[in-house]
Specification:
Layout: E1 7-11, H1 16-29, E2 34-41, H2 46-58, E3 63-68, H3 82-92, H4 94-104, E4 111-115, H5 119-128, E5 132-137, H6 141-156, E6 164-166, E7 170-172, H7 187-199, E8 204-207, H8 215-223, E9 229-231, H9 247-253, E10 260-264, H10 273-286, E11 289-293, H11 307-311, H12 315-319, E12 323-326, H13 332-337, E13 341-346, H14 350-359, E14 363-365, H15 372-382, E15 385-386, H16 402-414, H17 416-433, H18 437-449
Helix pairs in contact: 1-2, 5-7, 6-7, 6-8, 10-16, 14-17
Bound molecules: uridine-5'-diphosphate (2 copies).
């Protein structure tokens, strides 16, 4: 560690969708300051533990700090989402995590960057120890606007929730709200409100987005009484010191330029088995080449379904000349950079959206849960992709048919204007990331308090 530079500690919560932007931020910061990254053990998924291992091996400058969570009797929470449960447990253990950090630090911490999911517990501890606390918001500025305004909305609508009008920005329709928010008393609703009210007292909110992608939300956020909103996106992928030749990259190398549709719904399961089959048929009927990453469980360690059984007799055989289907972890940022990829059918997790934006890859948005409809709206408004907003999502009945999927895939892949607008988004994204102004601004702020 270099004592002349600030020392920042980063606390990711759980899930690859949170860990990935944290690693990217840590890697980018590690050239400019001393970085400690906290790793809460045991991780929920294997993907997270592999990622931590590879990451710490690849960035020896970053100091890993492990914190072992005490065992939990999970039978007390039979239906809880394991990632959401982990966020709750991190908040409950915040003071132990914090004391461990202070005791183990080789020299004083100038700032802590907490995951938004742990903000309500970490920020007061940082304040009482005189450490400035920043929040990494792991979604879009559009979602951040909603997140920031929701407690005010909830105050005036405590009993029933409807369309949420963000004054002077836009209305987030009821149909686009994360499902648990339909219930004002849900634990998720309460924890969102707690994190939101605390977030506004932080030293700054860091967002993995860029000005030209979300100008209206960023202007609105900065116009509100707010801590600084610091855009650092799109954060470049981390460079892992692992072997990179895989079946997927070999297969992609053999495909013509921009001919492949890439399909992924993120790091966890996203749809029913029936819908997966229908999607398979839709891809088959579309006639396009495709690379399809399927997850069949919420936590990867529980994924035991055979692909052939899932997709139905003969599917894999019928598409073998133009389709590759895998259940494994693919290096998505590499896939999206590959010249064979011409379009991306995505659930619109924010990391996936920023990766597509950075590479100028057009999207067909099929949000499935949480913040994804709010993100899909950014995709549609920015010209990065198409969003058929009548397609079903969490908690809704109704199968999107193979014919409809095939029609939309063809529409995305054949739309030259969409290709051009997506490429323009890509150019703007790459020109933003190069000078790294947002990051420099963040480091200057750390230095003020070092
Ligand atoms: N990802 C990947 N390989 C996979 C599945 C996911 O590299 O097989 C990465 C993807 O590139 C993204 C992250 O995992 O960076 C998932 O985050 P996102 O916000 O897109 O969705 P989530 O999984 O949180 O729903
Ligand atoms: N920026 C920010 N919040 C603000 C103003 C600017 O995060 O209130 C970020 C902006 O996204 C950009 C960087 O700071 O990445 C540089 O901003 P700008 O070009 O306005 O000014 P500079 O810092 O170069 O003077």
């Amino acid at each position: 560690m270099d004592p002349s530079r600030p020392h920042v500690a980063l606390l990711p919560s759980a899930g690859m969708g949170h860990l990935i932007p944290f690693s990217r931020l840590a890697a980018s910061l590690s050239d400019l300051c001393n970085v400690t990254m906290i790793s809460i053990l045991p991780t929920v998924s294997t993907a997270e533990s592999c990622h931590f291992n590879d990451f710490f091996n690849s960035y020896p400058k970053i100091h890993p700090l492990y914190f072992q969570l005490p065992p939990l009797d999970s039978s007390a929470y039979p239906n809880a989402d394991p990632f959401f449960l982990r966020w709750t447990r991190i908040r409950e253990s915040a003071s132990d995590i914090f004391s461990h950090l202070l005791k183990s630090a080789q020299f004083p911490i100038s700032a802590i960057v907490t995951d938004i999911a742990a903000a309500s517990a970490i920020l007061p501890l940082a304040k009482s120890n005189g450490i400035s606390c920043y929040v990494l918001f792991t979604s879009s500025a559009a979602m951040l606007s909603f997140f920031k305004y929701f407690p005010i909305y909830h105050d005036s609508n405590p009993v029933s929730i409807g369309n949420v009008e963000l004054p002077g920005l836009r209305t987030v329709p009821f149909a686009s709200l994360p499902r648990p928010l339909h219930d004002p008393n849900h634990l998720f609703t309460q924890s969102l409100i707690g994190n939101s009210l605390t977030m506004v007292k932080s030293a700054g909110i860091i967002v993995n987005t860029f000005e030209s992608f979300e100008p209206d939300s960023l202007a609105w956020l900065r116009g509100e009484q707010s801590p600084p909103v610091i855009t650092v996106g799109p954060l470049p992928p981390v460079k892992m010191a692992i072997s990179t030749v895989t079946t997927v990259s070999t297969w992609l190398d053999e495909q013509p330029e921009r001919s492949v549709v890439y399909i992924s719904f993120g790091s966890r399961t996203a749809m029913s088995k029936e819908q997966i089959r229908e999607l398979g048929l839709g891809l088959e009927v579309s006639g396009y080449r495709f690379l399809w990453v399927i997850k069949t469980s919420v936590v990867d360690t529980e994924d035991q379904t055979e692909l052939s059984q899932l997709l139905g007799d003969g599917f894999l055989e019928r598409v073998k000349d133009r389709g590759l289907v895998t259940k494994g972890w693919v290096e998505q940022d590499k896939v999206l950079r590959h010249k064979a990829v011409g379009g991306f059918l995505s659930h619109c997790g924010w990391n996936s959206v920023t990766e597509a934006a950075m590479n100028g890859v057009r999207l067909l948005a099929w949000p499935r849960m949480g913040d994804q409809r709010i993100n899909a709206d950014v995709v549609a408004r920015s010209g990065l992709g198409l969003w058929p907003d009548n397609w079903s999502w969490e908690g809704e009945e109704g199968l999107v048919t193979a014919a409809e999927i095939s029609h939309r895939v063809k529409e995305m892949m054949s739309d030259e204007n969409l290709l051009k607008t997506a490429q323009k988004v890509g150019e703007a994204a790459r020109s933003t990331v190069m000078p790294g102004k947002g990051l420099a601004r963040l480091v200057r702020k750390f230095e003020e308090f070092a």
